[in-house]
Structures are given as C-alpha cells and as structure tokens.
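Progress against Task 2.4 (sequence-to-structure conversion) is shown through the following example record, which the project officer requested during the mid-term review.
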Amino acid sequence: LEQWLARLHPADREPVQLALEQAWAGRELSVSLRLPGTDAPRWLHWAGQLQGRQLRGFILDVSALKAQELQTSAARARLENLIASSPAVIYVQRCSDGALHSEFFSASLQPMLGWAADSEQARQPGLAVHPDDHALWLQRTSDLLREGQARCRVRLRDSRGGYHWILDEARLLRDDLGQPLEVVGLWLDVSEATEAAERVRQSEERYRVLVEDSPAMICRYRPDLILMFGNRPLADYLQCTPEQLVGMDLGQWLSPAQRAAFVERLRQLTPEQPLSSSEICLQLPGREHAWWIWADRGLFDEHGQLLEIQAVGRDNTEVRRSQQQLLQGAKMATLGELATGLLHEINQPLNVIRMATVNTIKRVENGLAETDYLLEKLRRIEAQTDRVARLVDHMRVFGRRSAVEREWFPAWAAVTAAVALLDEGLRGKGVSVQVSVPDEQPQVLGHQDQLEQVLINLLVNARDALLGLGRRDAAISLHQSLEPGSVVLWVQDNGGGIDPQLHERIFEPFFTTKPAGVGTGLGLSVSHGIVSAMGGSLQVSNQGDGACFCMRLPCHSIS
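Structure tokens generated for the chain above:
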C-alpha cells in the first residue's frame, strides 16, 4: 500500500488513503486520482468493494473526460466573470403560455438601474417602461414570439425615478419540438448616445429651418464654383428650384473679369484666414445687372487643401443703384454748376469762327481773297471747331452713367480730363492752374469718369475759395507722387486753408462752408465715397497758405 500511494500525485495520496480506510470499513470505494507523467498527469477512476480480506474492483482511465471537465469549468468561470463584469445587463426570461417571466439578471443590473435582482421591477420590467414606449415594449414581445428575435430602444425608470435609454436585443430559444422555451437577451444603456443624437437632430432641424427660412442666399460650392447646395432665396433669384441648383456653375453669371477676381479671392483663403467677403456683380436671367454682398468661408482638409466653400449673400442691388443715382445726380449737379463756364468755353471758339468767317467773306467780296489767307482762316475755323467738338464730347462722356464694372486706367488720365474741362474757365476768372506732368502713370482700378468727378469737385471748391479771397495770384497746383503699392494725387491751392476744426466734418453729407443756397454739401461726401470704393483714401490738410487734398489709390502697374 505504501508503494502504491507513493506512485500517486502528492495531492491525491491523502484522499485515496481516506477512501481506502472507508472501504476497509465496508463502504464502496470510488475515488479519482492522478499518476504523474512526463507531459501531463494521468487521471484514473478507482472503484471497488471489500470481499473478505480482498479489495476487488477496477481502475478506469478518465484522462479525456477529466480534461474536458476542466476545460468546461474554466470556460464557465470565464463566462461568469464576463457576465459579472460586462457593462451590459444579460438576462433570461422564461416563456410560459405566451408570457415572459424574468428568471435571471446579471450583476450589472444594480449599477445600471439600481434594481435588485429580486425586485418588482426585475420581475416585471414592463412596469418600469416609459408611458410613451409601452407600444414598443409590447411590440418587442410580439416580435420575439413570432420571429424569434427582437431589437428595440425604450426608456426604463431607475430606482431614483429617472429614465435611461436602453437598447434591448433578445433572442428566443425553442425546445426540440419547436415550442418557445426561454429568451436570452441584453440591455445596453445608450442614454448618452441617444441624447447626443437627439441634440444633433434638433440642431440640424434648427439649422435647416434657419437656412430655408432665411431671407439671405445660402449655398455651398466647390473651388471650381460648382454649386453643391443652395437654399430657396438663392433659387428664387436664379429663377429655378433648389434641386436644380445642384451642379450649376456659379460663375456663369459673372463676367470674365468678375470670375477671375472671384477665383483669385478664393485662392487666397487659408486655414488660418478662411473668411472673405466682397461685392460681386452678376447678370441674372431676365434682369439687369445685380449686385450681391457675398461672404465666404472655406473648409479645408488636414493637408490645408480647400474642399468647399460655404457662402452667405444678400442682394445689394437697390443700394447700389441708389448710390449710382446719387453719383449721377452729383455729376449732373457739377455739370450744372459748370454750365456758365462751359458756355463761355463754347462761345469763345464760336466768336473766333464767326470773326474768321466775316473777314473771309469781306476779302472774297472785295476780290482780295488770296489762297494763303483763305487757308489760314479755314485752318483756324477747323481748329476752333475741333476744340468745341472735344469739349462737347467730353461733356457728353462725363455726363453719362458710369460703366457697370470697374476697369484699370491711368490715374493721371482723370487729372488731364478734369483740367481740360476747367482750365479755360479757371484762367478766365484769374485762377492759374499749375500741372506737373509725371513721367510714370500707374493704373488704378475703378471708373475714370468718377475719379474725374472727384478732381472736378476739388478744383471747383478751390476756385470758389480763391475767388472769395479776391487774390490776384490765385493758383491751383496738381501733381502726382508714388508710394509702395500706391499712387498719390495732390490738389493744392493758396486760398488760406480750411479751419482745422472742420477737417473732421468736411466729408460729411450736406456739410458746407459756403453761404446758404450755394452748393449742395454733397461734393466732398460723394468724392470721399468714390475714393473709398476704389480702395483708397481722401484726406485734407493745410499746407503753406492753402488747403491740400491728398488721394491715395492702390496701384496696379506702371504704364
């Protein structure tokens, strides 16, 4: 016996010795033991009974069964640990006569809902379902019994009275005869995800209402100006439906110059500076030119590549037309104010023509008309006729409406045109005009006739100030200077200057220092607006013994 016990696994020697003592006492022997091996112990089952002085029985090799039993135990332990530590609640419901009765809930039930496994809520979870979800809960039971599985999202009341969104997934198990046996399922608390999804849905709904009901034009488009989305106001402006906007080229309503400027503005967007705004001019279907105030926001990928642009626009056409009417009215007021001088400009060459014609007729009647004399008179008539034609043509061009789109032109060209229109009239009133023609003539972006209008306003104001003083050496000087990126035009007189306290107000609408009934008070205000629209600035200061107006305009190139 000692030798036999020594061959056993040390952990099994005592249990086997006790079993043998019981067998000597008359009981049946039944014990499992292990024989140590090189790889793994060998499991044996020893069974027997005492007969006289002999123990008779058998030994059965149960190694395979024991290994399977150990694996099953380990798997069961892992499963129990998984169920106990799972954040989801695993449950079992017994099916009896079409009704489901709770039999098991995992330990996660208490942390999730605060229910005890033997509580009334656990036995009948339907009682804790939110009233608005009762129909879903009943439908879940019906689907389980009919289809064998169900998945739904309901609200369950916890022990403190609050509700949790629970994702319920269950499967029905059947017996060998196909009869419903039990339901195995799990509950997962999805309150945070559900509430977040609801907030997103509400936010999207508010955004949709805001976009659709907004009076502004809202759209999304690619860098190649192809529309990806547009709201109803934009579709109405373009005389189509919102669905038809998708795939349209936004640039088809822009002139080539406008499109190039639009694309260049988008090219300058960066992740650090994604915002841009501008006024754009469009030729809309069946309408005259329209002006929109357009604001863009670029969206970029992780590499800084522009993916799409979100834009908001509003129609500025009426405001722009009012501005044009104001500019045109101010321009016509300027022409009206210059009418007397212009009539003198026209009358003087007409007098020359009349005198030349009278003298020529007398020579012809007296038979003294020589060829050289006649040619000289005719050339004088031709020169004066050209002078009148240029003056009338200039007045006609200046008086008509400005072009729709801005153009590049030499800033000094506006100075030349303004002086040509006023020079004779100024000199006739004793005001000399001193012009320093520059060697370089940079180009600026805008309307030449509008810049000419600014210069005429400045020249007329200087003239009135000088004539009010009655100076014999009255003079106005014009010259140009260059700064990095800018061209500067200077208009200066020797009329005593402007009270420094008025410098801040001099560009206000309807503000004037002239007597009542003289002037409108809009000249400098309109001039300031024109220069600002060109991206420049108009400033006034006193220099020497007169006022000096300085215009700085963005420079394009040197011509």
